[in-house]
Amino acid sequence: MSDNKPVIVLVNPQLGQNIGKAARAMLNFGLTEMRLVAPRDGWPNPEAGPAASGADMVLDQAKVYDSTAEALADCSLVYASTVRRRDLVMPVVAPEEMAREIHANEGRTAILFGPERSGLEGSDVQLATKIVTVPINPEFGSLNLAQAVILLAYEWSRGAGEDLVQPTMKDAEPRAPMGELNALIDHLDGALDKAGYFFPPERAEATRTTIRTLLTKPGWSSREISAMFGIVKTLAAPYDRSSKER
Q1: Cross-strand bridge partners of residue 221
Q2: Which residues of 38-77 are buried (b: 16+ CB within 10 A; e: fewer)?
Q3: Which residues make beta-bridge pairs with 63?
């Protein structure tokens, strides 16, 4: 995993469950370093583990600090995740820009998140280099802690190169040889012909061309062609029986 992973700093987090959910969000995108500033219910918190759903390594390695300044002491670039503050004059960036800057930064980077109910205090935001704000519905701007963490962690992960993979991806099956595909097309052609599908006769050739195009596009594997053979055979069975009876 990339060496420029940002540190996630939770300032005065209130519920152990939310800390656990934040850890889960972090590990989904390869972030492992969590720092806690004066958690309300102390640390460790028994409610954090179940909520982390397996992200125990993040919780086990989490460090606790008495102040936000101490938690950020080794970081050269700090983003405060909060709404735009009119009382503070500092740069405001979107998550995409934040991610680019983190990947370009040679020093340590941190992203600050405030307590669930009130968010970051002005004194904490002042310790940041920039404010990062997630575009959100102005009529309902309510993100919980884990949601905020996962949005920014995901944005960072997009520039993490080959370190992260698409969870739902699987190795594609090799394409079947053309001989197998042609055999399927011939088998289907014969079944359709028995069923009287090619009508009127003068349109038969154009219809066959369309069918071949449709079956060639997907890039069937041998397993899929075998399955299609079975489907066509089952559908054609009544016509095969009637032709034998005649």
Answers
A1: 175
A2: bbeeebbbeebbebbeebeebbeebeebeebeebbeebeb
A3: 35
**Alpha-carbon distance values, 7 to 18, 22, 71, 128, 215 (Å):** 17, 12, 10, 13, 51
Does the pLDDT of residue 242 top 70, yes or no?
no
Nearest Cα neighbor of 149 from 51, 75, 224 is 51
Say whether pLDDT at 133 is over 80: yes
H/E element, 8? strand 7-11
Q: Which of 79, 75, 103, 227 is nearest to 163 (CA)?
A: 103
Neighbouring residues of 52: CB distance < 8 A, sequence distance ≥ 6? 20, 21, 23, 24, 58, 59
* Rounded alpha-carbon distances, angstroms, from residue 213 to 4, 166, 181, 185: 49, 31, 11, 10
Question: Do residues 128 and 88 make contact, with C-beta atoms less than 8 angstroms apart?
Answer: no
Each residue's pLDDT tens digit, 56-76: 999 999 999 999 999 999 999
Of the candidates 139, 153, 183, 191, the one whose C-alpha atom is nearest the C-alpha of residue 28 is 153
Do 31 and 61 contact (CB within 8 A), yes or no? no
